[in-house]
Amino acid sequence: MREAVHIAQRGLQATLPMIKAGVTEREIAAELMVQLLHAGGDTDQAFSPIVSGGPNSANPHASPSDRPLQNGDLL
């Protein structure tokens, strides 16, 4: 569990710099997957990362879409 937390933290920290207005939920989810693998994650994931912004952020099981983030969106 501790190693999983460390992998998740490293993956998220490496993804954060690319999160800005104009980047789509799908692009962020893809980058997060790549960074989780770089951090030592396994290719066999229980589920894909849930990345949802703006109006999609109210859905706890949203699938990443091609909607670009807007200034002020929650993610």
Structural description of this entry:
It is a single chain. By secondary structure, the protein is mainly alpha-helical. 37% of the residues lie in helices and 0% in strands. The chain is built from two helices and no strands. The chain has helices spanning 2-15, 25-38. Helix 1 packs across helix 2 (25-38).
The string of secondary-structure elements, in order, is HH
Helix content: 25-40%
Rg, rounded, reads 12 Å
Structural category is mainly alpha
Mean pLDDT figure: 94
Count of individual helical segments: 2
DSSP strand tally = 0
Q: Which segments are poorly predicted (pLDDT under 50) over 5 or more consecutive residues? A: none
Largest sheet: none
First CA to last CA: what distance? 25 Å
Strand content: under 5%
Shape: globular
State the main characteristics.
2 helices, about 80 residues, mainly alpha
What's the SSE blueprint?
Elements: H1 2-15, H2 25-38
Summarize the structure in short:
Helices cover 37% and strands 0% of the residues. With 75 residues, the chain is mainly α. The N and C termini lie far apart (25 Å).
